């Protein structure tokens, strides 16, 4: 394990760019949110393009009945020749009559609905009055006009927070959607330390006992939840700053922050974490044999870039050339930046042409970027990793540390094997 750098990167200069960006829209987040929230339905108020995006991203079979859909805005809606609010009310009524299992209905704004200024906030209030208390209707924006794709989850959770009842007892809230198996691992570790009660946002069901108040402390599991962080803070909850739980060191630091808050002894902490820490270290070490000494360049995409750069530089021995992120929220990622040695360029936002020039000049061993840039860069001889795969794959906490390192080592191993075959 590397020592903590004497001077971290929290106060490093940040190159701020405001130009053309290459990102997915926030509707993509519905794909993991609808799996997590079992009695929710996500109704996108948008175009046929929105519907095609969701169907393609989710890979939904034609005979399946998913818990998301699109209220299609036709030409008459876009031209103002029809009352979009009346049509939306009819669509919602038909949906809820057919699907009585729905307890939470999310009206999700899109680029088309925002361009023609459909007021989904008022629609949500009106529909909650009509269909409550059995169904709670909430709206948030998944538009890609000014956002990146992980902000869809952030907007969704931030919209839920004001609807939560007030909590009067001390509790820990874990915030951020995780695969069930990963969430269970985290809850098991915390439970064995005697930490509780614990609630989770987003919860699986609307009637799960999730509340928030001045005695709530919350730990984020995803680094893209800036709006949710602000919404919880407004409700009086207190954030536990910590590195994000990627890799052995990040997971240990995250758990340590929670354990210190709840007075867990060093002996108990060691007893609970020793075995999984050792497994994580050994798993990461295997991938680090391929990654050590290699350079990595991050294009801004998911907002996971800074915690992942910390993991790769500290635990895998890589050298970060540039770490680009759509937004750099230091209240969230500052602890990760503090653990990184000075050296990489940090960039916020994007001017894709300028950043492509820097990547071509640097010729990194691995470039982490969006799907739209990966194939062109591969054609130019750069080895790439799809950033979106890091969101859809279980990568948090100890048991996934080796898998996380493997996501970065495999493209490099594949490149080396191809070079050997070409040489033969």
TrEMBL record:
It comes from the Bacteria. SUPFAM superfamilies: Helical backbone' metal receptor (SSF53807). Residues 32-380 form the Nitrogenase/oxidoreductase component domain. Gene3D superfamilies: Nitrogenase molybdenum iron protein domain. It catalyses: chlorophyllide a + oxidized 2[4Fe-4S]-[ferredoxin] + 2 ADP + 2 phosphate = protochlorophyllide a + reduced 2[4Fe-4S]-[ferredoxin] + 2 ATP + 2 H2O. [4Fe-4S] cluster binds at residues 25, 50, 111. Its EC number is 1.3.7.7. One of its GO terms (molecular function) is oxidoreductase activity. Pfam families: Oxidored_nitro. Keywords: 4Fe-4S, ATP-binding, Bacteriochlorophyll biosynthesis, Chlorophyll biosynthesis, Iron, Iron-sulfur, Metal-binding, Nucleotide-binding, Oxidoreductase, Photosynthesis. Its cofactor is [4Fe-4S] cluster. Pathway: Porphyrin-containing compound metabolism; bacteriochlorophyll biosynthesis (light-independent). The keyword Phosphoprotein does not apply. Binds 1 [4Fe-4S] cluster per heterodimer. The cluster is bound at the heterodimer interface by residues from both subunits. InterPro entries: LIPOR_BchN/ChlN, Nase/OxRdtase_comp1, Protochl_reductN. Belongs to the BchN/ChlN family. Protochlorophyllide reductase is composed of three subunits; BchL, BchN and BchB. Forms a heterotetramer of two BchB and two BchN subunits. PANTHER family: LIGHT-INDEPENDENT PROTOCHLOROPHYLLIDE REDUCTASE SUBUNIT N. Component of the dark-operative protochlorophyllide reductase (DPOR) that uses Mg-ATP and reduced ferredoxin to reduce ring D of protochlorophyllide (Pchlide) to form chlorophyllide a (Chlide). This reaction is light-independent. The NB-protein (BchN-BchB) is the catalytic component of the complex. This is Light-independent protochlorophyllide reductase subunit N. The lineage of its organism: Bacteria, Pseudomonadati, Pseudomonadota, Alphaproteobacteria, Rhodobacterales.
């Amino acid at each position: 394990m590397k020592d903590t750098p004497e001077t971290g990167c929290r106060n490093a200069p940040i190159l701020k760019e405001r130009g053309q960006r290459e990102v997915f829209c926030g509707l993509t987040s519905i794909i993991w949110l609808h799996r997590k929230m079992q009695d929710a339905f996500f109704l996108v108020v948008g175009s046929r393009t929105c519907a095609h995006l969701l169907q393609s991203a989710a890979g939904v079979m034609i005979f399946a009945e998913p818990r998301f859909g699109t209220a299609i805005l036709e030409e008459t809606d876009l031209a103002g020749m029809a009352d979009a609010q009346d049509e939306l009310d009819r669509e919602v009524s038909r949906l809820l009559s057919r699907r009585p299992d729905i307890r939470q209905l999310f009206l999700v704004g899109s680029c088309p609905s925002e361009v023609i200024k459909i007021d989904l906030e008022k629609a949500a209030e009106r529909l909650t009055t009509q269909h409550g208390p059995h169904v709670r209707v909430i709206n948030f924006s998944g538009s890609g006009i000014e956002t990146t794709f992980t902000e869809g989850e952030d907007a969704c959770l931030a919209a839920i927070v004001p609807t939560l009842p007030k909590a009067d007892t001390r509790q820990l809230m874990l915030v951020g959607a995780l695969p069930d198996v990963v969430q269970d691992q985290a809850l098991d570790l915390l439970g064995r330390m005697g930490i509780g009660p614990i609630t989770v946002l987003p919860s699986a069901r609307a009637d799960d006992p999730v509340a928030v108040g001045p005695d709530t402390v919350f730990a984020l599991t995803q680094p893209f939840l800036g709006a949710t962080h602000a919404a919880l803070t407004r409700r009086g909850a207190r954030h536990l700053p910590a590195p994000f739980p990627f890799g052995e060191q990040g997971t240990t630091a995250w758990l340590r922050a929670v354990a210190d808050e709840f007075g867990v002894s060093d002996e108990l902490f060691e007893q609970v974490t020793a075995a999984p820490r050792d497994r994580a270290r050994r798993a990461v070490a295997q991938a680090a044999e391929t990654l050590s000494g290699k350079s990595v360049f991050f294009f801004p995409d998911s907002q996971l870039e800074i915690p992942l750069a910390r993991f790769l530089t500290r635990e895998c021995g890589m050298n970060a050339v540039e770490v680009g992120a759509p937004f750099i929220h230091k209240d969230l990622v500052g602890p990760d930046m503090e653990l990184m040695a000075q050296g990489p360029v940090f960039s916020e936002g994007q001017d894709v042409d300028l950043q492509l020039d820097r990547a071509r000049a640097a010729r990194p061993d691995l470039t982490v970027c969006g799907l739209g840039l990966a194939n062109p860069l591969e054609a130019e001889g750069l080895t790439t990793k799809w950033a979106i795969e890091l969101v859809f794959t279980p990568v948090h906490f100890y048991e996934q540390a080796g898998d996380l390192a493997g996501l970065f080592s495999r493209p490099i191993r594949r490149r080396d094997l191809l070079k050997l075959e070409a040489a033969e």
